[in-house]
Amino acid sequence: MEKMINYGIDLGTTNSAIAKFVKGEVEVFKNPLETGRETLPSVVYYKKDKVVVGTNARTYFERDGKNVFGSFKRKMGTTESFKVKSINQSKTPVELSAEILKELKGFVHSGETIEAAVITIPASFDVIQSNATKEAGYLAGFKQVILLQEPIAASLAYANKRKEKELENGQWLVYDLGGGTFDVALIKIKDGEMKVLDHEGDNYLGGADFDNLIVEKIVVPYLNKNFQFSDLENELKSASGKLNNVYYRLLKVAEDAKLSLSNRTSSEIEVRDISDDNDEEIDISIDITRSEFEGLIKESIDKTIDMIKKILVRNSLKSSDIQFTLMVGGSTFIPYVRKRVEELLQIPINCNIDPTTAIAIGAAYYAGTKEKIFEGDIKKKNISGLKVRLAYQKTTKEDEELLAVRIDGNIDGLFYQITRDDKGYDTGRKPLINRISEDLPLLKDSYNFFRLTILDSQNNVIETDSELIGIAQGKFNVAGQPLAHDICLERDSEPEMESKITKLELLFQKNTLLPQKITKSYVLNKSIIKGGEEKFIVNVLEGPETSLPEANQTIGYIEIDGRKVSRDILRGADIEVTLEMSESRDLRITVYIPMSDQQFTEVFNPSMRHLPVSKLQEEVQTLSGKLDSEIKEAVGREDYETAEELSTLKKQVEILVINSNNLTGDDVTDKKFQFEADKRKIAQEIDNATRDKRISLLKIKYNEEKEWCKEIVEENGNDHDHKLFREIVGREPAFLNSITPIKILEAIEEMTDLGFNILWKTPSFLEGRFQRLIEKPQLFNDQDQGKSLIEAGNLAIQNKNFDRLREINWGLISLLPKSAQQDAKTGKIGF
Fold first, then answer.
1. Regions of the chain where pLDDT drops below 70
2. For the stretch 395-422, what's the b/e string if a residue is b when 16 or more beta carbons lie within 10 angstroms of its beta carbon?
């Protein structure tokens, strides 16, 4: 059995392909049902007794559009499903994608069972979409799935196709415009190693949108003008619309016209087998010219160029710093796309690879570097006490490379052996030492794989955490896959903060190479009572750290409630959260609570995107209202520059309001997801525009909190408290001059924490708090316990037992209604 995965799959929106790495080269498998074709249309058709996939499925759009499905990749990671009339069932995007993957397996003519594959995803896919893609792979029968970002795959295909002397150190752009998604990535090669420096993308921009534009802007207006329809567009796009079946036919003929316009200056769109509201039968051809089509897609292409400009600005680059723009994805066959990109960027375009198969080829190259490791194999590892650390050059032009090994642990009586997978090199059995150095001979123009094996005196293998050693000689490999977006936790501000706002805490930063692991410690701001319903909940989000939480995408929630803990976990207790993200963006989260000495692994619940049209419309209206308030505030403080910037955004929001309100509840297009993505981007821009205002308000709040805390420290603080106060004040130049409001908010919280930590140790505060708590004993939810605590509190005051009084105060607070507990804990009035 082959030890490496070797198979790479491009699971595309409109077309898919499969390839295999074989002895240093890549073979793209032909479609067995279509001579000469190497791709499979990503279309699935359900008949009562069978499933049809590919070109044959696509032909049924004309006859039975309700049972044919395409472009479902764009709904991966959502709760959307597709109603299949012929079998009276619904199919999810994951299930439909699995059908494509199963069909691709049939392309492999050797008859071997494919148990593992590298499957590509857009670089801009979020964590939930990535997880859904892996799920489709497992549903298709794969035991192991590794995800690879499409721009990396394209770069590997290109780099390994070129001769070594043709690829010098430098950087280029990958422009990947496919059927449903767009990615652009900045790639750098240095000393034979390839790195992704930055990227941008749009999961709802591609050839399918161009097809839809033809229908919306050419076909529908023509039909409305020449025939009688009361609500043609909604009748086409609503699942319950009487012309919904026609909509899929129109998309197909629009796509055919689009394809023909790459080689012709005009084309025809045939519209037939449809009647208007007066029952007049329609059988016509609508002309569309190449210039008309280019006018339709101009805005979309310019949007992709704006993303490229963002990358250049962010990385302080000029067009002259970029060698070329590598064009991949089927939509880059459109002549206008190539012309427009080169014209506006003034960077040469590179069309030297087949844009339809480049992704699959690159995935196969990557698969050739990845070892097959199934679930059972993973569990066998790490059972010895030895720790193995390896250091070596992963990409080289030399004939041999130095391997340096460090072994930690008891090595008495042990041996080591290093072998190359092709059996062409073997060190033989050598006594194990803590530091090993070996020169490894390499096969030319190949991926070389070596294994370090630890043996006991009886030649039994000792399991360790040693990984496969892979060195590419004369082949290009990638340094690692970068994280597509910031990963953050949404944290409440401290309970004492009057604003009750939340903030984002950065865990993993965009463009950081995966895998990653981090452990963070937090203090619980409320008690979790054993057996109770109180919960510790933390939102995990994807998106810019500098944005407000509502502008980002929720991945899921970390959740622990009273039914899981073995004892009461009191407010102020420590809690440790460990997050691990794999190269395929699997997110694993564990929580450890020292107070109960419990570790929880099943605490993270990833959430599929659920977006009813009504919710989108409500959120857009809320955003519009917020924007109006911000503009009014900016004018009120005579900040006309910000007001003008926000007014520009207002025009975008007004368009978004109109577009979202035009959607029906059962709209079958991707429009609601496009509009939701637009909404989040606008929310981020509003946040950016109003950041100065929020920083100013937080500075005022900080100075107020500083004066309050200073008075408490001077009156009641010890030496340690004085030191902490001086440390916070000493950092003022850093956080008060920060462009991130969060830094100031964190300083406010530190001041608040310090002040209340002192107060809760101060007798006068504890007495005053007690007196205030017993003013309204009728509020206590357990009158008997309340009476008992009041008696104990009076006794504690009489005996000056303030440690006991502190406990009693917390006990009384826990008896109050939840709505009153926060003020009882932190109210400053009268104390």
1. 1, 162-168, 375-384, 492-502, 819, 822-823, 825-831
2. bbeeeebebebebebebeebbbbbbbbe
pLDDT at 496: 41
> CATH code for 7-162+356-367?
3.30.420.40
Report which secondary-structure segment, H or E, holds 121.
strand 116-121
CATH superfamily of 381-478: Immunoglobulins (2.60.40.10)
Token pair of 674 as six digits: 């496009």
Instruction: State residue 498's pLDDT score.
Output: 42
pLDDT score for 709:
94
Q: Note the pLDDT of residue 227.
A: 93
Pick from 287, 322, 52, 36: nearest CA to 173: 322
Per DSSP, 549 falls in state G
Q: How many CB atoms lie within 10 A of CB 281?
A: 10
Q: Rounded to an integer, what distance in angstroms lies between the CA atom of residue 737 and that of residue 728?
A: 14
Tokens of 533: 């319903």
DSSP states of 723-758 as a string?
HHHHHHHHTHHHHHT-S-HHHHHHHHHHHHHHHHHH
Per the CB < 8 A criterion, the answer to whether 520 and 507 are in contact is yes
Q: How far apart are CA 294 and CA 71, in angstroms?
A: 22
- In degrees rounded to 5, what are phi and psi of residue 284? -135, 170
Q: Which residues pair with 492 in a beta bridge?
A: 502
- CA dist 488 to 504, 506, 686, 687, Å? 6, 4, 20, 17
What is the pLDDT, as a whole number, of residue 822?
A: 66
pLDDT digits (tens, 9 = 90+) for 456-515: 989 999 988 888 898 888 778 887 899 999 999 987 644 444 444 567 889 999 999 999
CATH of domain 487-606: 2.60.34.10
> How far apart (Å, rounded) are the C-alpha atoms in residues 21 and 475?
13
* Strands, E assignment, 276-356: 281-289, 325-328, 349-350
> 786: Cβ–Cβ under 8 A, 6 or more apart, which residues?
777, 780, 812, 815
Superfamily for 164-351? ATPase, nucleotide binding domain (3.30.420.40)
pTM of the model: 0.80
Tell me the per-residue pLDDT of 351-365, one tens digit each, with 9 for 90 and over.
Answer: 989 999 999 999 999
CA angle 817, 819, 820 (to 5 degrees): 70
